[in-house]
Design brief:
Strand content: 15-25%
Number of helices: 2
Helix content: 25-40%
Pfam families: BTB
Distance between the termini: 33 Å
Oligomer: single chain
Largest sheet: 2 strands, antiparallel
Structural class: alpha+beta
CATH superfamily: Potassium Channel Kv1.1, Chain A
CATH class: Alpha Beta
Organism: Sinocyclocheilus rhinocerous
CATH topology: Potassium Channel Kv1.1, Chain A
Order of helices and strands: HEEH
Number of strands: 2
Protein name: BTB domain-containing protein
Length: about 55
């Protein structure tokens, strides 16, 4: 069993939800958005790193 002294990080069950919430909050404020996707004339700002994670 590892301990905090081993340099391990323990994630809660909702860590992914928290990360997505915070990325969306940044996106909605146009903070760190570095890509614009245009679909049907509508523009969507996004984070390049999030899009790369969807590969």
């Amino acid at each position: 069993m590892s301990s905090a002294a081993d340099g391990c990080i323990k994630f809660t069950r909702h860590a992914g939800d928290d990360a997505l919430f915070n990325f969306n909050r940044l996106r909605s404020r146009n903070i760190l958005t570095d890509v614009t996707i245009v679909v049907g004339g509508q523009q969507f700002r996004a984070h390049k790193t999030v899009l790369m994670a969807c590969r």
